[in-house]
């Protein structure tokens, strides 16, 4: 097994080039990147208190930024500019408890729940509880009927246990992972029925035919976008010589699936978790969103900062600082993530990705990057780098 010490030495060179030379520890180096990112985000706040740069930007962007500030530890919900941001976010709360505008009810409410939970302020308990109840009510189970009469009558339906962009929408793993993150952040225990239902949906998004009853399921252990309506993967699909169709697993959804299963109470010994980690070991990289290029080289960096966000949350939840890849190389994921985001941070403290999935929006990309770094920092505090 190759040593990771060379990586730590390399990081000193990288951070010197990025203007953070002299940092005594990886945590210090990480925090300096966070500070620059948060400084950039603070200066992007709009006069109304939000972080929506365009009129049609969803309020979830404001919620992501607020969560980044709350997780830093140097800001409080009552910090004036932060409070102004929460006031703006809560201006979108409806009588139903949902926090959104016009569309994307689940997506926006889930992210808002995580932001409100991170604030840890009694003033937000009532709107938080209402938003959690609304979010739980959007999960596809026997109790939900969509506005067009859509129903999921039993657990055999591939929609069962999932969440879509709204209460009438096809469920997908991206919305499910934001929803489960929200329930986890709000303090719901894995014994809550929402997690049990979600595990049925999560299992159907994984390429693991022993636990996935969908006809397209393979056995590489990775995850796809949705099992609904015949299944779909943003990384495309493939067919065997005899015409059998498989959906291709890819990075951001695999880490989202791993994180969600852990939040739902699965342990490292569960075969679904083991299978996901095997896929991760075989596709280890921070240079791109793994396996996306298989459907076209131009897609390799699609959703890159979203990928970093779920990568860091998943591996922090998994609880192992070092991952050994398929070639036997040992990787401290925290150090590698700090190095990569240090290389990519712009002089003004921002990050910016590709057009796909809105990541040319530097506020969105920077919020994802800062929260990924915060997960790495917190993990380093629990398990210092060797």
List keywords for this structure.
two-stranded antiparallel sheet; single chain; mainly alpha; two-stranded antiparallel ribbon; 13 helices; 386 residues; disordered N terminus
Short structural description:
46% of the residues lie in helices and 3% in strands.
Biggest sheet strand order reads: 1-2
Low-confidence stretches: 1-6, 12-21
| Mean residue pLDDT | 91
Give the SSE string: HHHHHHHHEEHHHEEHH
Radius of gyration computed on alpha carbons = 20 Å
Multimeric status of the protein:
single chain
Strand content: under 5%
Topology:
Blueprint: H1 5-17, H2 26-42, H3 60-72, H4 80-90, H5 105-119, H6 125-137, H7 173-185, H8 193-203, E1 237-239, E2 245-247, H9 251-263, H10 271-282, H11 304-318, E3 322-324, E4 330-332, H12 333-344, H13 362-382
Antiparallel strand pairs: 1-2, 3-4
Question: How is this structure best described in words?
Answer:
The protein is mainly alpha-helical and 386 residues long. 46% of the residues lie in helices and 3% in strands. The longest helix is centred in the C-terminal third of the chain and has 21 residues, at 362-382.
